[in-house]
Design the sequence.
């Protein structure tokens, strides 16, 4: 290898970092927890320590830079997190410049779902296309749009908020102020909320538990996944009509339940999109799992480094 | 001027062509009707005659090429109209290559709403931005997305079908197979359909007639525009959440009714989009009216000419 970079995935729960070479080979990965309760400085120290450890390990090779994926609304050009329910201590803190100062190497900040979409484009299910959309299904639903091989940022970096597409104008209220957001009808959290409404399982029911019940033939559990599929199908049909991209990917915890939600999802897209019916549009599973964000973050300094100072 | 091009707007009703110089000055315009009943050859002859007339008028100057905006689904790279309810005779006919052969000059084919969006970006309300979305309100609703100064085509050119965004999953059935498409709730046609449902005006009521009634204080007419505003607001909130672009434009016949539909539209976007509330996103009237498509079509050979052979 002649060059490598370090990708970081700073989540509300997990802090991970990986050294990845220019050909997309993961050289080494460090996985730990995000100790939010210890405060912002402690998290920054952990992050810097992981990066330095990887850099030491591969010294002698050229480090292109560091990419960091974070949950929340970010201002890309400013390297600033402006809103992040999962990382409140980092809101309006100049995280990019601070890490850059401590490391003396270029740092690029990116939204975590955008990073994951870029990772899938670089080394995952989107290798063969330049345009794709990724939906990450988890506590909420994140989204990333890749156009011409690059993240579609919008004018301050808030593009791709696909979890807040309205799938039902009078649907469930969302923390964002809207009603009927996709993530209120198709995230892991939404699955659990539906289970509780239907008195399915105990008070500690999880998305995985609902999946087990569906496998066992439980009608309510299967209905929940149908409802999820319907919501995803409405959102995906909108995305197909808007973008006419060749590829739409899904990732996240509920993916094992594909056979329970995907048929309804695909039927909805089929019905609601002329472009889908008339083009070779693929809707498929992402391939890199929770490592997509690491690949995408590492990809940033390798492929898209530009002076921001 | 050192260079000019010719933009053509081939609609189901009107056939127009204009010579526009590289600085966006309209030098001359020819406006006529599309004689569909006379057959495809007659329409092609009319189109070629208009272009040749303009070319003769400005001979001595360099003609960059010809851009043609047409309604319907097109394959951009193939220069082919694959589906067009308004120009059925042209479906799957190699219109670009045929015109090119007859003229001996490069021709670029584009969807009419995409052309209009590009025109607004070049010389209209979007002059100062590189990213915008245009919704054209008419019999249906067309859409155009400009990203990085260029039309977002998607992989075969069917991107920007914004009239088919679902604003109500159980809403009015649409010819595209979906229910609750934006254009079934906010186009001029939808306004008339609502008026008939509400027994407003006579059997020949038009969108303009509904507007007159709203001006006169008619409650039903005002409710119709509120309903239109709600549908537009849901669709625009989706677009803001997806793109985070700085500018969203509306054009078309119902624009004079702005004061009746826009307050509700903007309130819906405000409620349904975090990105809208937290960024300087503008939703505004387009400026070029029905000449936007001519500017955009003329812009294509001037700015985006590339060999397609």
Sequence:
């Amino acid at each position: 290898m002649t060059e490598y970079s370090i990708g970081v995935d700073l989540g509300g729960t997990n802090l991970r970092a990986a050294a990845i070479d220019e050909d997309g080979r993961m050289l080494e990965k460090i996985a730990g927890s995000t100790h939010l309760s210890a405060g912002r400085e402690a998290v920054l120290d952990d992050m810097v320590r992981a990066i330095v450890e990887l850099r030491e390990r591969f010294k002698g090779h050229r480090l292109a830079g560091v990419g960091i994926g974070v949950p929340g609304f970010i201002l890309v050009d400013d390297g600033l997190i402006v809103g992040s329910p999962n990382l409140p201590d980092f809101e309006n803190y100049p995280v990019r410049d601070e890490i850059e100062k401590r490391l003396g190497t270029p740092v690029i900040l990116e939204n975590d779902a955008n990073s994951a979409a870029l990772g899938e484009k670089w080394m995952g299910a989107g290798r063969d296309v330049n345009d794709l959309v990724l939906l990450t299904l988890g506590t909420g639903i994140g989204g990333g749009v890749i156009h011409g091989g690059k993240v579609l940022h919008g004018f301050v970096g808030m593009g791709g908020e696909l979890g807040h597409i309205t799938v039902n104008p009078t649907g469930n209220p969302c923390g964002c102020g809207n009603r009927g957001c996709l993530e209120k009808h198709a995230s892991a959290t939404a699955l659990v909320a539906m289970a509780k409404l239907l008195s399915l399982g105990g008070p500690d029911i999880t998305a995985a538990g609902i999946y087990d019940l569906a496998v066992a033939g439980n009608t309510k559990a299967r209905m929940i996944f149908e409802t999820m599929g319907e919501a995803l199908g409405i959102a995906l049909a909108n995305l197909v009509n808007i973008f006419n991209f060749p590829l739409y990917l899904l990732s996240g915890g509920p993916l094992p339940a594909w056979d329970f939600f995907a048929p309804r999802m695909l039927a909805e897209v089929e019905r609601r999109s002329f472009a889908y019916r008339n083009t070779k549009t693929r809707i498929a599973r992402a391939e890199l799992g929770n490592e997509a964000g690491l690949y995408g973050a590492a990809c940033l300094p390798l492929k898209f480094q530009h002076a921001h100072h």
Q: What stands out?
A: The two ends of chain A are 29 Å apart (CA to CA). Chain A has two domains: 3-117+290-303, 128-287. Chain A touches chain B through 49 residues (CB under 8 Å).
